[in-house]
Amino acid sequence: MKPTILLASTNSWLSPVRIAGTFADLGCRVQAVCPPRNALTVSSAVRRTYLYRSFRPLSSIDAAIEAADPDLVVPCDDLATAHLHAIYERESRYGSSPGSGTAALLVRSLGSPANYSIIDSRQEFLALAREEGVSVPNSALTPELSALDGWILKNGVPAVLKTDCTSGGEGVRIVVTRQQAHRAFRELVSRRPTAQTFKRMLMDGDTTSVARLLRSERPLVSVQQFVAGQDANLALACWQGEVLAQITAIVLKTRSPKGPAAVIRLIENSQMSAAAKTIVRRLGLSGFAGFDFVIEERTGKAFLIEINPRATQTCHLQLGMRRNLTAALCASV
User: Fold this and answer.
1) Does 130 share its domain with 277?
2) Distance CA 252, CA 247 (A)
3) Burial class of residue 41 (count of CB atoms within 10 Å of its CB; 0-12, 13-18, 19+)
4) What is the pLDDT of residues 273-287, one digit of tens each?
């Protein structure tokens, strides 16, 4: 019998719909937990949807897991992954056995829980990759402006500021002066709603940003050295620390600066493949993951800049042996 897949989405992206269709074509029973206006709610590939509540995210995902009784949970954005990590942490803290119930499901779906906190932190992830010998840009956690100033004094600009648990280019700023860095830092840590926040709430029915503001969550900001070159990415399916299938591409066009790819060209790159394989094994990952790289213009070296611990935009593509991610993952469940 084919597995039951529960997709977890916290926003209005369309990419989860394509993932749902691919799983359904394989004979999987697809269900989803998502916001009320998400396209998954009207997809013929999804048998049932459950309401994701941005003001009660963990309890709404909990309820979906209990009702769907899935064999695998697939997060479709970074916040969904962070929620699942938090649910595992709560389950383990209050005495649930890692080998039973929801805890076991999340370990099967996401991989080793020992590394969830590293995956949720951009800075900790890059530090781990550096330890494993993977080429990464210089970076540091900058909780205050003084720490950012100190980093810029030592490393210079241009630089890239990023916040944790954001996706699709949100929470990313490229700065070329110290003044721009200060302005970007204040924007990233601000708890004030923006025009984009109101647009998502009113037009898309997406209240996630408002909920985070009301919970007074102060984003963690890190800074990275800017690497001039060609953006590239590698999407993969993995199981218990082993890569099952992967798709590698360079980015020809993005929807916005440092935003999600709009046009790609498939490539092979041994540096990217080796780095992804090393990280997957080190973290003991299962499920889908995406790795963002920059292929340095001057040297051709592939620098790993971040992990997307979720289904990414190319995961639905079916490109044959070792490049059909959904089929490879489905066969392993």
Assistant:
1) yes
2) 15
3) middle
4) 999 999 999 999 999
Instruction: Using the CB atoms, write b or e for 240-256: b if 16+ within 10 Å.
Output: ebebbbbbbbbbeebee
Q: How far is it, in rounded angstroms, from Cα 234 to Cα 251?
A: 11
Give the range of the structural domain holding residue 79, as residue numbers without chain letter. Answer: 4-110
Same domain, 240 and 323: yes
* pLDDT > 90? residue 258: no
How far apart, in Å, are the Cα atoms of 263 and each of 15, 233, 286?
14, 12, 27
By DSSP bridging, strand 221-225 and strand 261-266 are unpaired
For the chain, percent of residues with pLDDT exceeding 90 = 78
Please state, in angstroms and rounded to a whole number, the distance separating the CA atoms of residues 166 and 300: 28
Least reliable range by pLDDT among 10-14, 46-50, 235-239? 10-14
Model pTM?
A: 0.89
280, 294: one domain: yes
pLDDT at 92 over 90: no
Residues 256 and 125 in one domain: yes
